[in-house]
Amino acid sequence: MERVHADRQRILALLSDLIRIDSVNPALEGATVGEGPIARYVADLCRGLGLETTLQEVEPGRPNVLARLRGGGSRHTLLLEAHLDTVTLVNMPHGLEPRLEGDRLYGRGACDTKGGLAAMLGALELLAPRARALPCDVLFLGSMGEEVDGKGASYFATTGGRADGAVVAEPSSLRPIVAHKGVARFRIKTTGRSGHSSRPELGDNAIEQMAEVIRFLKETVEPRLAQLRHPLCGPATQCLARIYGGVQINIVPHEAYLEIDRRVLPTEEPEAVLDSYRAALAELRRQRPGVRAEVDRVFLLSPGMEAGLDSAIVQATLAACQAVVGRAEPAGVPYGTDASWLWKQGGIPCVVLGPGSIDQAHTADEWVPLDEVVRAVELYAEIAARFGA
Ligand SMILES: [Zn+2]
Q: Ligand 1: distance of its center to the CA of 111 in Å?
């Protein structure tokens, strides 16, 4: 198949349309309509191209979009996946008004991940008239819910969604990411006994217990994490992210809470990581019998992702990156994506690849370099031209 070339004005118009459609994840502050309107826009576009298109109702009013482009009789399916939701508009009140300054297109989601979404749709527009020359089917998945828990991708993977390889659109500055971390998010609770703050010795201070927990996590657990390393993703890490407790200033606090974000290596199981914290707290309780601490809530267990360098999707992606961008170095990153679910639950080898930098994602002045979005169109089309060939 000959190389295709994207039209910059068309991609600018498409990405601007996508930015104008509010798709703030309904679990986040200030959300209104969820992913429904953007899903309908994307589905209409895919139907217009002649793709077999369905809406997968994951939650009421919050669908995934699925659209299949049939290739020239191949048995292989390439999945192109981009999430439909964005983070909040609270720190970017004009985020629904796209603005081009030089090569930078500003707007909520411009970078994460409507730039990648526009590039995938742009690639489908270029590929649809040439589908018979494709060595594979291309299945597009626009997923809901990525910014909170990846429910859309997980739903796809656990309800029979299949593919032989996937490209997941997230801002990677067009670097192919072949491994990333997952995350375990949970809460530790300490339990004491309240009393009058003028006689603290008669109560049992849950905040002071939590201080013991924190010292143990920093001095004993953290050095162990530094020993766990992945060659592309770096070490396992923990962030003591949120702390609260107590009732009011004249009462000895009887409860305190610490929320932890522990980044999980692709080689670790999130459930086992959680168990390691339960074991660590048991170790602390043996050392300091006065400390009553336990894991009392689990918010999210999301696995990491790692694609073999010799897998077809990595090979096709590296070749396409070399051809289109002129460089092809596989990388690993510490943040998670929908690829976790596609890989762990669907068994689909994944590469994460998209325009824009993760440094601009979720910020108050989110932007994406339009040139990279245009390049991404050609890159995704080139991967499809090579996958399964
Ligand atoms: Zn994203």
A: 8
